[in-house]
Automatic annotation (TrEMBL):
Name of protein: 4-hydroxy-3-methylbut-2-enyl diphosphate reductase
One example GO MF annotation: 4-hydroxy-3-methylbut-2-enyl diphosphate reductase activity
One GO BP annotation of this record: isopentenyl diphosphate biosynthetic process, methylerythritol 4-phosphate pathway
Job description of the protein: Catalyzes the conversion of 1-hydroxy-2-methyl-2-(E)-butenyl 4-diphosphate (HMBPP) into a mixture of isopentenyl diphosphate (IPP) and dimethylallyl diphosphate (DMAPP). Acts in the terminal step of the DOXP/MEP pathway for isoprenoid precursor biosynthesis.
Cofactor: record remark: Binds 1 [4Fe-4S] cluster per subunit.
Leading EC class: oxidoreductase
Positions contributing to isopentenyl diphosphate binding: H45, H78, H128, S226, S227, N228, S270
Cofactor(s) recorded in Swiss-Prot or TrEMBL: [4Fe-4S] cluster
Length: 325
């Protein structure tokens, strides 16, 4: 008789309030205006979400010069530099901002610090769209740091006037390490540890951390360019557990699950919940499974849509009760 496998489902997992809001913005614009609705960069870092919206008339572009005059263009959840907003205005585009409010908060902090004359040290990964946008808030006054090892080489105008911020989707542990190195080098530095890491990123990391010791294998549903998804894989791997990032159930290698008695399945904040269900079903197709939810917290974060897209009921998005988290 085949032994029963346990499938642990750490929660929260999958969509966050910022991702739901960004997707809803594109959906409502498609309803209101009809296709095409242009979207600068991937609305969120998930190939399934992008393909679905594309099939309904969204057109994803890299630069605004690909958008016809006066057309509707959406800025993605990762945010844009002010220069991009200016370019859209100059070209007369109908821009709708789907930047996650928690990314916008980091932009506001960067502006406030730079306006006060501080050098802003941004902890983040070079080239990530969110980092490109945040660096663009005060490009003359912001430097990027990617690791604690890089802190000694940082150049700032005045070591007494420094503020640090971070990308919202990093590893809590790593940001705390880098923040510690920054405080050692700049005793007067302003900043709030890992506070810029968003609730969704830190909750998903805490949920995986709570089950990883029991798991023989961790599967993280998410796209290769999803920062918070990659951090979940790293967290499991650092705990010594085999971990894989998969787009969907089709990427599961039979050899991974063959000897695994307990498998944890989670998803990054940009991955649709249905993909997790499909992964669980695929594991179930290999033999009997016991599926166990493992919540560490309940998410209640909600974000309003931009004013022009709110319906009369002023519906809020991202409520854990209303949506499948
Ligand atoms: S992962 Fe965090 S910062 Fe990114 S959209 Fe979700 S809530 Fe916002």
């Amino acid at each position: 008789m085949t032994a029963v496998r346990r499938v642990l489902l750490p929660a929260p997992r999958s969509f966050c309030a910022g991702v739901e809001r960004a997707i809803e913005i594109v959906e409502r614009l498609l309803e209101q205006h009809g296709p095409p609705v242009y979207v600068r960069n991937q609305i969120v870092h998930n190939t399934h979400v992008v393909a679905d919206l594309e099939s309904r008339g969204a057109v994803f572009i890299a630069e605004l010069d690909e958008v016809p005059e006066h057309a509707v263009v959406v800025f993605s959840a990762h945010g844009v530099a002010p220069a991009v907003e200016r370019e859209a205005a100059e070209r007369g585009l109908d821009a709708v901002d789907a930047t996650c409010p928690l990314v916008a908060k980091v932009h506001a902090e960067a502006k406030r610090a730079a306006d006060a004359g501080d050098t802003v040290i941004l902890i983040g990964h070079e080239g990530h769209e969110e980092v490109v946008g945040t660096l663009g808030v005060a490009p003359e006054r912001t430097v990027l740091v990617e690791s604690a090892a890089a802190v000694p080489a940082l150049e700032v105008d005045d070591a007494a006037k420094v503020t640090y911020l971070s990308q919202t989707t990093l590893s809590v542990t790593e940001v705390e390490q880098i923040a510690g190195a920054l405080k050692d080098r700049f005793p007067n530095i302003k900043g709030q540890g890992a506070e810029d890491i968003c609730y969704a990123t830190s909750n998903r990391q805490a949920a995986v951390a709570a089950v990883v010791a029991e798991a023989d294998l961790v599967l993280v549903v998410g796209s290769a360019n999803s920062s918070n998804s990659n951090r979940l894989v790293e967290l499991a791997a650092e705990a010594g557990v085999a971990a894989h990032l998969i787009e969907d159930a089709g990427q599961i290698e039979p050899a991974w699950i063959e000897g695994a008695r307990t498998i944890a399945v989670t998803a990054g904040a940009s991955a649709p919940p249905a993909l997790v269900d499909e992964v669980v079903a695929a594991i179930g197709a290999t033999g009997p499974v016991e599926v166990v939810e493992r919540p560490v917290t309940e998410e209640t974060q909600e974000f309003l849509l931009p004013q022009r897209l709110r319906s009369d009921d002023r519906r809020r998005l991202g409520s854990a009760g209303a949506r499948d988290e």
